[in-house]
Amino acid sequence: MPETSSPAPLRVALLGCGVVGTEVARGILANPIDLEARVGTRVELTGIAVRSLDTERVTDDGFVIPHDLLTTDAEALVDGADVVVEVMGGIEPARTLIVRALGAGAAVVTANKALLAERGPELFEAADAAGVDLLYEAAVAGAIPIVRPIRESLAGDHVRRVLGIVNGTTNYVLDKMATEGLDLDQAVKEAQALGYAEADPTADVDGFDAAAKAAILASLAFHTRVALKDVAREGIRGVSAADVAWARRTGHVIKLLAVAEVIGPVDDGEISVRVHPALVPDSHPLAAVRGAFNAVFVEADGAGPLMFYGQGAGGRPTASAVLGDVVSVARRRLTGGKGLRESKDQAFPVLPSQAAVTRYQVRLAVADRPGVLAQVAGVLADHGVSIDTVRQAPSDEKAETAHLIITTHAAREASLAATVDAVAGLEAVREIISVLRVEGS
Ligand code: NDP
Ligand code: HSE
Asked: Superfamily for 10-142+316-334?
């Protein structure tokens, strides 16, 4: 029998040992035999870059990360690695370290959606030039396999639309408002107490985190470079307890959605990418996504509707996706060959937010007298906005005010904005209480 030499161990450098990094380290250190079997050679964690060497690194269930693996010299760690796992977050020094790793021929796995949404093209080009993998399954919706299914499983199909609940914190907040009648501030405080929301909840509440994920999903789904600046973004700060209660009365729930869709022909259209709160009908699968869970609903020509559901954050769930990518890049290093490159050939134009087409629900308070409903309907007709349903809530007789809930057919955002301005200018209209988009119907 000829002697066969086993492949050299695969050297993995980990950048970051926080919520996610600690669990990635555990995943490599605690299961060496399993990992070796999946990869085909031993996987060696060569070191972990951190800022402080004084902090003890231990997982929630007590797995202690050996102190001698920690280093503050991230550059030296990167230079000796076959695979670099970046879970430090932020733009710098993560970007420089990833470019350095790719330039030196190392494969990179990252969970850093903010970096990908802002500087993705530069990183993908560096990976292309070096002929190495850059994988990022954990960057969108944590544990949920969504990047690989869109990138690989649906590569032969045409994706028309992606609707995602991709921020667990805001889903938790909106769910609490719906189920317990809390107002936004109370629900955010609860989310902070549970560790979902940070002390400064801006990234989640104002939709920045979801917008970064929307940019990544749209880039993948439509083979087009979509950056964070291309995503129209509106967070949940404007959602009131009354909006949530009214949503319920009209058979909806309010969700912060990441929406990416093709407008026009699927091979020659334009795309709209946006993040905003939206009314989702109770019957839609996304309406059932509760608490801090995430879900992504994909509509493709051939596959039809698909739904991906699971934990979108947290150390262990996110590390699961990171480790899957580590195994994937490690296998390819052993077997050779190029991995999937960035797919950007479709290059759809990205529409401005004003050109987005969707349905709306407008709640308004009007004078309760004959002819007012006809006046409001007339303004919508004049602007070419078609009414689907009108509901009038019981009037406040003392104030002689009626409460109207008008749901429109699909209309351009710009037409709707002009319509709402014109309606607000009617003498009989006392207040435009809210304007919410309706998605998923
Ligand atoms: P943490 O803040 O918990 O951890 C960051 C780690 O990186 C820390 O160990 C920190 O070191 C280290 N670090 C930061 N800056 C530097 C630096 N300049 N040099 C060396 N080390 C540095 O972040 P998370 O684990 O929560 O998130 C990591 C990444 O994963 C982010 O990109 C995030 O968006 C993404 N992600 C996170 C999810 C989650 O649920 N937490 C879910 C999905 C993605 P030290 O500890 O010494 O300060
Ligand atoms: N803050 C994010 C969320 C973490 O709430 O979903 C995962 O990206």
From this structure: NAD(P)-binding Rossmann-like Domain (3.40.50.720)
